[in-house]
Design a protein that fits this description.
The chain has 135 residues and is an alpha/beta fold. The chain has one domain: 3-Layer(aba) Sandwich (Rossmann fold). It has six helices and five strands; from the N terminus they run H-E-E-H-E-H-E-H-E-H-H. It has helices at 14-25, 42-56, 74-85, 99-109, 118-123, 127-134; strands at residues 30-33, 39-41, 65-68, 89-92, 113-115. It has a three-stranded parallel beta sheet, covered by helices on one side. It has a two-stranded antiparallel sheet with strand order 1-2. Strand 3, helix 3 (74-85) and strand 4 form a beta-alpha-beta unit. The mean pLDDT is 93.
């Protein structure tokens, strides 16, 4: 018998879904790898998210939309979940979109803070882009 779709049935916080997945699959289960192919387990991801979240909470406000300008990496995933863990809204920014589109995205999402890494900016030669976003 077909059921009507209930949009509210699956409504829960992203970080809560991560905790549920850890409980279902086991905390020691690897779920992602870094660039050096070192696995990160559910428990390690959650611990890293809480650790980074404590640091980020010091300069961001609850409910704030925070820009994330990082590569697709373990660090990017940890940052994403860290922001969720402390009640911030991660706003993923794609550096390939160009300055005009990044500025428009930041304005639209009301982003005041952008998280990135020196290594990413240096390796991607994104210094000029970052300087322009600061202006």
């Amino acid at each position: 018998m077909p059921r009507a779709y209930d949009a509210q049935a699956g409504r829960r916080a992203v970080f809560d879904a991560l905790i549920d997945a850890r409980n279902r699959h086991g905390g020691g289960r690897p779920i992602l790898e870094d660039q050096e192919r070192h696995p990160l387990t559910y428990t390690a991801l959650i611990r890293a998210a809480f650790g980074l979240g404590r640091r980020l909470a010091g300069f961001t406000a609850r409910g704030e939309h925070v820009g994330v300008l990082l590569p697709s990496s373990a660090g990017g995933v940890v940052t994403f979940f860290a922001l969720h863990a402390i009640g911030r809204v991660p706003t993923m920014l794609n550096f390939t979109a160009g300055l005009r589109n990044l500025k428009a995205a930041c304005a639209s999402a009301r982003v005041k803070t952008i998280l990135t890494s020196r290594r990413f900016i240096s390796q991607g030669k994104l210094d000029d882009l970052l300087d322009a976003l600061k202006a």
